[in-house]
């Protein structure tokens, strides 16, 4: 790579209350009212006590209401907030289960390629077909940022994608539930946000489910539903969030069975593919100075446009010198199947004329049949960008590799 070129993967050619006071009493003038009867004081006092209970609010009043709801023949309390739940999913179960829930990233002909997945026994991974329809390359990212390749085994008619892990992980897989779930048992959805943060959300019981639309986003498609024993009782699928639905464990067991006829594979055959289209925000591993934040915005914008294949707009982020050599045509040829992710700014230094040097580590996903790919799909990159001022703004002048690229599976 020439010193002035930007990083590119093997190419394929064809992100206070005030206080109460009491007035001092004075001797009244004029006629005096008749003496107040004792019973009147009692009525006022009783009213004051009732008012005090009301003002006390939720604690006292709530206790009183709940105490009236107790069935005299059983110690169970009827909770007006919702139906009875026989068990809930505790934080320890969630912590253990979350280790087997992964991000799914792919370059596809349609340009989707981002979802949640769950690791089962024998290296099988389940996710949503909508995220990896016609894929050219797929990787999964664990909660501790290990990256592994995955191959598509097939898709079911109801939207479940079945994949096979390439290589190995020391992560304990989750078991599929082997029987019908108690309709009053609590369930939790585990999924990822677009920024890569794993989240857990209770979604009620099968008798009284929480609407998926209230907890879903596109990157949670493929996410598992886990019960109190840490078993997978379902997976959320759908082409879009409004269309999301749950495929239960009874069907999932059939899809992962050896020799299953319930799934068929459709691999991508397109000449150009794209990964997820969400904005890239590089992680800052340096102090948040005005300069480092400006660098973060510039490189995030650059990587986002590259992922979207908007090579015309990205030209405005190049210096005039770089734009003369790195043309739109050159950029398009170098990024026909690439997708950048996991960018981290590891170093920022001011340079001459108020410019900057920025070192960035990142990953790039690409087609395994791209020129020079040698069957690989993902590389780790380490680049030093030289940034200059142009019209008062930082732009990219060149990038130099600080080390040879390595396969993403390397630890």
Q: Largest sheet, described in full?
A: 6 strands, antiparallel, barrel
Within the largest sheet, what's the order of strands?
1-2-3-6-5-4
Low-pLDDT runs: 11-83
Shape summary: elongated
* Count of alpha/pi helices: 8
What can you tell me about this protein's structure?
By secondary structure, this protein is α+β, with helices and mostly antiparallel strands. 20% of the residues lie in helices and 28% in strands. A 6-stranded antiparallel barrel has the order 1-2-3-6-5-4. Strands 13, 14, 15, 16, 17 and 18 form a 6-stranded mixed β-sheet that branches. Strands 8-7-9-10-11 form a 5-stranded antiparallel β-sheet.
Task: Tag the structure with descriptive keywords.
six-stranded antiparallel beta barrel; 8 helices; 411 residues; alpha+beta; six-stranded mixed β-sheet
Concise synopsis of the structure shown:
The protein is of the alpha+beta class and 411 residues long.
Itemize the secondary structure elements and their pairings:
Layout: H1 38-56, H2 58-68, H3 91-98, E1 101-108, E2 114-119, E3 124-128, E4 135-141, E5 147-156, E6 160-165, E7 188-192, E8 198-202, E9 224-226, E10 232-237, E11 245-248, H4 249-256, E12 263-264, E13 283-284, H5 290-307, H6 311-314, H7 320-325, H8 328-334, E14 339-350, E15 356-365, E16 378-390, E17 393-401, E18 406-407
Parallel strand pairs: 13-14
Antiparallel strand pairs: 1-2, 1-4, 2-3, 3-6, 4-5, 5-6, 5-12, 7-8, 7-9, 9-10, 10-11, 14-15, 15-16, 16-17, 16-18
